[in-house]
Amino acid sequence: MRRLTWFNATSLTLGFAFLYLPMIILITYSFNESKLVTVWAGFSTKWYGELLSNQSFLDAAWVTVKVAVASSTIATILGTMAALVLVRAGRFYGRTLFSGMIYAPLVMPEVITGLSLLLLFIGIGLDRGIFTIILAHTTFSMCFVSVVVSSRLATFDRSLEEAALDLGCSAFDAFRLVTLPIIAPAVISGWLLAFTLSLDDLVIASFTAGPSATTLPIKIWSAVRLGVSPEINALSTIMIGIVAVGVISASLITKRASLRQQADERAAVHA
Amino acid sequence: MRRFTLIFLPYIWLLALFMVPFLIVFKISLSDIATAIPPYTPTLDFTEGWQGIKAFFSALDLENFAFLTTDDLYWKAYVSSLQIAFFATFLTLLVGYPIAYGMANAPDHWRPTLMMLVILPFWTSFLIRVYSWMGILSTEGYLNQLLLKLGLISEPLIILNTPTAVYIGIVYTYLPFMILPIYSALERMDGSLLEAAEDLGCSRIKAFWLITVPLSKTGIIAGCFLVFIPVIGEFVIPSLLGGSQTLMIGKVLWEEFFNNRDWPVASAVAVVLLLILIVPIVLFQRNEQKQREAEE
Predict the structure, then answer these.
(1) Secondary structure of B234-261 in HEC code, one letter for each residue
(2) pLDDT tens by residue, A224-248
(3) Could you state, in order of their start, the residue ranges of all structural domains in chain A?
């Protein structure tokens, strides 16, 4: 029954046109000569030049990258631990609360998460800045990481790990040498997800940033509230480009990895 | 011991940075606004011992919640958020289902690419995706230019800063959340069921309603909740595309906090928003549970 009828072809064409046209228009107009964003006046890369010479954007970009790398790395470690707890720890005191706290941030409106963290930071007298954004981002993205990793752990064959333990591996070595390589794709995609979430976040960062640290989304936000601007179009194009390269290469890598894994498994069966 | 560390670290982190902040929000929602640092009373003072704690608790009240019911703005904002979320979810389903259906029926070797094309926008900045519509929908925007050139309209349409723009923005940004669960439900479907129905004289449209739709029900429900729940508290879309006409509670909370600096009322708004969200979240969890049980 897999056939491409005219109906399916039309809905796919229209659907993907809807998903991609706004971004294609944005990218096209970032190369527009004119300051008036809606009037085409010839090809130019001058807005990229203006953008790269604008120190405040560069500063914001640097803050954003620092926050994203730090928070996604801590979130991956904590999230993987949390996934191990969820899948393996069995019953312990407060388990329901624990899994509740893992799943709740996924559906929590950002305005509430942001507000509550800000009130905490003020309550304990922590100065707001890069550090508080990292704490905030780590907290919500570790939950995403743990969901991604725990779905991989749930299908993991534990007998492999038991075999390693029987053959004299310490529990930590068994984790490092057997479990981790197998769940690695999930851990990596968890990290990437956390990284992107942090890169993207406007609302929580606005609450927790304070005056000393400005991230790129906060910077973009204050610019676009005044309307469409060619510099922001250029910046958006750069960000879309980075994401596109990242997603496409990641999907190629996972495809290669899964092909290799299949080959390995076949070899193991035949050996 | 190792097991203890494993549990202990993420547990403590979430307690300190997720649970405690909530309790603080809850507590401040019961406090009164004050011109002080922090701008609310009472604050807990342990130096006064038991008397201090007693004074603290007796100063807490439901005044802010009463205030939410007296001012029209708040309950209107809650109702309009729910309405917008409801209609936007329905529209997203109408747009998303045919795409998911087309994907599930596409030739096998196309599907990884189609899948990647749906996921790609999801990794792209939310803010940028919403922003991209500002240029399209504004009065001098690309859509109006196109329609004027084609002679379909004689005056530019006013779309930006209206609820229509908010709906477009929501459908656009949340579409992948609707497509993916429906697609995964449709993909698992056994095609021979449809063949059997056709052999037995069922028309294709009837077969669609009697077989395809019921079998993709879990995907539809999951997709709808994945759109409905986050849209209720949405802030970016109504602020950039909705203008002053669109009232949504996420925006009200933001303004209450950043513009009016009324922390206790902002906290009360947050608590009520959470209470409203509990219902769809519990229903969503139940749907997921049912799906898991069905798979086992």
Answers:
(1) CCHHHHHHCCCCCCCHHHHHHHHHHCCC
(2) 888 788 889 999 999 889 888 888 8
(3) 58-216
Q: For A242, which residue in chain B has the nearest alpha carbon?
A: B124
Tell me the per-residue pLDDT of A78-134, one tens digit each, with 9 for 90 and over.
Answer: 999 999 988 887 778 888 888 889 888 888 889 999 999 999 998 888 888 899 999
The overall average pLDDT reported for chain A is 87
Does position A4 have pLDDT exceeding 70, yes or no? Answer: no
The CATH number for B70-295, chosen from 1.10.3720.10, 3.40.50.11540, 1.10.10.10, 3.30.420.10, is 1.10.3720.10
pTM: 0.88
- Considering only the beta carbons, identify the residue of A11, A19, A203 that sits closest to B175: A19
> Which of A78, A88, A101 has the highest number of chain B CBs within 10 A, making it the mutation to test binding with B?
A101
Query: B114, B120, B252: which to substitute to probe chain A, counting the most A Cβ within 10 Å?
Result: B120
Give residue B55's pLDDT. Answer: 67
pLDDT of residue A216: 93
Answer whether residue A3 shows pLDDT above 70. Answer: no
- B32 pairs with which residues across the strands? B41
Q: Which two tokens stand for residue A143?
A: 């939950």
Q: What ipTM score was computed for the predicted complex, to two decimals?
A: 0.86
Torsion of CA A260, A264, A265, A266, to 10 degrees: 100
Q: Return d(Cα B142, Cα B270) in angstroms, integer.
A: 38
Q: Which residues contact A38 (CB under 8 A, 6 or more apart)?
A: A29, A228, B135, B138, B140, B141, B142, B145
| Closest in A19, A224, A247 to B240, CB measured | A224
CATH of A58-216, one of 2.60.40.420, 3.30.1330.20, 1.10.3720.10, 2.30.110.10: 1.10.3720.10
Q: How many CB pairs under 8 A join A and B?
A: 229
Is residue A1 over pLDDT 50? no
Instruction: Name every chain B residue with its beta carbon within 8 A of the beta carbon of A12.
Output: 99, 102-103, 106, 114
Alpha-carbon A177 to chain mean position? 26
Give me the half-sphere count of Cα atoms (radius 13 Å) on the Cβ side of residue A20: 13
Alpha-carbon span B252 to B210, nearest angstrom: 43
What are the tens digits of pLDDT across the range B63-83? 788 877 787 888 889 999 999
The residues that bridge with B40 in the sheet, in sequence order, are B33
Residue A20 is encoded by which pair of tokens?
A: 């991609």
CB contact under 8 Å between B116 and A117, yes or no, is no
Is the pLDDT at B121 greater than 80? The verdict is yes
Beta bridge partners of B33: B40
What is the C-alpha to C-alpha distance for residues B96 and B260, in angstroms, rounded to an integer? 39
